[in-house]
Amino acid sequence: MGIRKLAVGVIGAVLIGVVGASAYAWTDNTNYLTFNAPVALPGVTLPAGTYLFRTPSDSDRNIVQVMNRSANKSYYMGITQPVQRPQRGTELIVTVGEAPVGQARPIQAWFPIGQREGHSFNYGR
Fold first, then answer.
1. What are phi and psi of 34, to 5 degrees?
2. CA–CA separation, 94 vs 101, rounded Å?
3. Mind giving me the DSSP string for the chain?
4. What integer pLDDT is reported at residue 87 of this predicted model?
């Protein structure tokens, strides 16, 4: 099972080039991510654009909030599972999964800049 998860993570990391995410600014536990295609999080599809990903709670680092660039509209807030980086380093990584044609690819994990551990999003199965 561990090898399968690693393979999915590697495939997802490769797929991010297809979706096209980039980070252009970050602060304490906050990354601004730009996607050039729609992506999905549990319960929401985000159109192409720039979003603020952050961990808003000092007491629970597993809570992730995704807001618009201006930080005045929240699109997602949920509890995530901690996950180890698929490779060394502390650069931004976003892994995405596969989706049927015409649907947004789901973000599987976000690895914030400067952090050794990331956030795996929980999709009901």
1. -115, 130
2. 20
3. -HHHHHHHHHHHHHHHHHHTEEEEEEETTEEEEEESS-EEETTEEEPSEEEEEE---SS-TTEEEEEETTSS-EEEEEE-EEEE-SSSS-S-EEEE----TTSPEEEEEEE-TT-SEEEE-----
4. 80
pLDDT digits (tens, 9 = 90+) for 101-119: 999 999 999 999 888 899 9
What are the extents of the domains in the chain?
2-120
The position carrying tokens 């970050």 is 26
Quick one: which of 115, 116, 110 has its CA closest to 39?
110
pLDDT band at 4 (very low <50, low <70, confident <90, very high): very low
- What is the three-state SS of 56-88? CCCCCCCEEEEEECCCCCEEEEEECEEEECCCC
Q: Which of 50, 53, 54, 15 is nearest to 35 (CA)?
A: 50
